[in-house]
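Hi there,

I know you've been waiting on this one. I reran it after we fixed the sequence typo, so this is the corrected version. Both the input and the resulting structure follow.
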Amino acid sequence: MTAAPGRVLAISDDVAARGWLSTFLASMGCQCVAISSGKALPSIRRGDCHAVLIDLPCSETSAKELVSEIEQAAPHLWGRVLLLTDEPAAPEAAELTHRQIPLLRLGRKRLIEELWPTLQPLLAAPSKPNVAAQIARIARRVYDSFRQPMPAPVRGHHPSSRQLVYRHHKTMVDLVIKPVLRSERIVLLGQILTAGEPAGSSADLPVALLAPTGSVAATRTNRFGEFSLEFEYIQSAELQLRFGETLLVPLGDMDWANRGVQSPQFAREPPP
């Protein structure tokens, strides 16, 4: 989403501070959205602002989490974040300034003297193409059942299915991949879970299976964030999930499924 020029997101858990920040920024011709840290994450994910002010300390959602969310969900705002505090020596402030985020020790009477000269260049800078935001996020594999040691009696047998778990920020993607008995087809069952989000937030999300040659299959999640896909064997693949951003889940080499797909041990289980 393109931000309106001069739109500032001011995050503060101090009601009075939100009031005087809004008043001051409006007097300087800015459009200000002042909210508490506990309500800031959705606004950050929308990316519909030109700069972000974070008033320390943050009691509802930590400033570290807010900054991480900006880095992950709105990378075009990186370099347009300004920290405000009366205690620049606080551990939280020290940790964030170590990441080259500007910090101002600011009182209400020094807004024009300190805040505006620092903020104005951020607002006046020409907008740059949001290249980073167009690049899909890539989920990291955190569990693979093939990497777990098997009991001695079954070692050497081809496994009937493979479970994979991926993670990106607060989102978990749980997958089970099963070759279909006496065929060259594969069933993929999955579920998307996002920590801290209300029930149903992973419902009706588009899911696509991509091969190097293009799209192979597509579906949408049910109300529990579950989905299933059935497709012909492909050598390598990745899942593409869309929920405000594009998340890629690399499945990698699928040869393991093709090697054992004709084995009698593969029993097809219907999708949920």
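Quick highlight: Residues 137-259 form a domain with the Immunoglobulin-like fold (CATH 2.60.40).

Best,
R. S.
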